[in-house]
Amino acid sequence: MDIAFPVLEQVPFISISGRASTVSLPQLSSLAPTESNPSLVPDWPSFEQDGAPISLDLPKLQVVFGSITFSGNFSALSLPRLRSVWDNFWVEAGAGLSIGVPLESAGDLSFTGNIER
Predict the structure, then answer these.
(1) What is the residue range of 49's domain?
(2) CB-hemisphere CA count at 13 Å for 38?
(3) CA distance 7 to 44
(4) CA-based angle 63:47:28, to the nearest 5?
(5) Number of folded domains in the chain?
(6) 3-state secondary structure of 20
C-alpha cells in the first residue's frame, strides 16, 4: 500500500496503520485544529508500520497539538523541523531505527525498542 497526500498541509488527526510500502506527506506542517474546526481537539495521531521497514520523512512538520506515536518497523524517522509536541512523543521501534528530531518542547518522551541513534 502506497499512501500519498502531496499537498496536505494541516490536519487535526491522522492514523496510518498496517503494511505501507511508502508514506508521503511532504507538505504536512501541523497536526492541529484547522481554521474550519478551531475548537476541535485532535485525537492521538499515530503511524504504525507492520510490514517491511520503511523510512518516514515528514520534512515540514513543525508542531503537534497533542500527542503522537510512531510504532513498528521504521528504518528511519526524519522530522527535521519538528520543534513542539504539546503532549506525548512516543517511539516504539520494531526494526533498527535511526531518528532525528530537533524538539525544543514536549510533554513526555518515550523511546523503546531497537533504536540505533
Answers:
(1) 2-115
(2) 1
(3) 22
(4) 40
(5) 1
(6) coil
Do residues 113 and 97 make contact, with C-beta atoms less than 8 angstroms apart? yes
Q: How remote is the C-alpha of 7 from its chain's centroid?
A: 17
Distance CA 51, CA 6 (A): 22
Q: Write the DSSP symbol of residue 89.
A: E
Residue range 40-81, pLDDT digits in tens: 555 678 999 999 999 999 999 999 988 899 999 999 999 999
State which amino acid sits at residue 32: A
Q: How many angstroms separate the most distant Cα atoms in the chain?
A: 40
Whether the model pTM is above 0.85: yes
Distance in angstroms (rounded) separating the CA atoms of residues 112 and 69: 11
